[in-house]
Amino acid sequence: MSHKLLVVDDERDIADTLAKTLTREGYETVVAYDGEEALQKLKAENPDIIILDLIMPKLNGFDVLKEVREKYKDKWRPVIIVSAKSDLESVKKGYGLEADHYLTKPCSVENILRGIRIMISLMSARIKEE
Predict the structure, then answer these.
(1) pLDDT tens-digit series, residues 8-55
(2) Are 49 and 6 in contact (CB under 8 A)?
C-alpha cells in the first residue's frame, strides 16, 4: 500500500526535491508552499503523513499543526516537523502541539525517510489496536 505524504515548505527547491525523492521511494506526494495551501491540500488530498516546515508565510507551521490536531481527529495523521528552528523552545512547542517527530535542517533525506518509516510502522500498530 502506497502512503500519501504532504510535503509543506515555502522553499520550493527543498519541497520539490524532497517530493521527487519520496515519489522515487514509492510514496504518493503532494506539495504545499505555505501554511494556507497546506490546509487546503490536507482537506482535498487527505494525506497519511505530513512533513511540515515551521517558518512559512501566510500561516506558520505551528499554526498548521494546531489546526491539524484540532480539526482533523478522524484518524491519526503523523506530523514530522523538518525545520531550521533548532532551539529548545521551538522543539518543545512542536511536541507540545503533538508533533510526532522533529528534525532540524539541514537534515538528510535518510533521516526523513527513517522518520516516515517509523510513523508508518506506528500507524500499522494503531490499526491493529482498534
Answers:
(1) 999 999 999 999 999 999 999 999 999 999 999 999 999 999 999 999
(2) yes
Closest residue by Cα to residue 34 from 14, 49, 52, 47: 52
Q: What is the pTM of this model?
A: 0.93
Q: How many CB atoms lie within 10 A of CB 69?
A: 14
DSSP 62-113: HHHHHHHHHH--SS---EEEEES--SHHHHHHHHHTT-SEEEESS--HHHHH
Class of domain 4-129: alpha beta
pLDDT tens-place string over residues 62-81: 999 999 999 988 788 999 99
Closest CA to 17 of 88, 109, 94, 113: 109
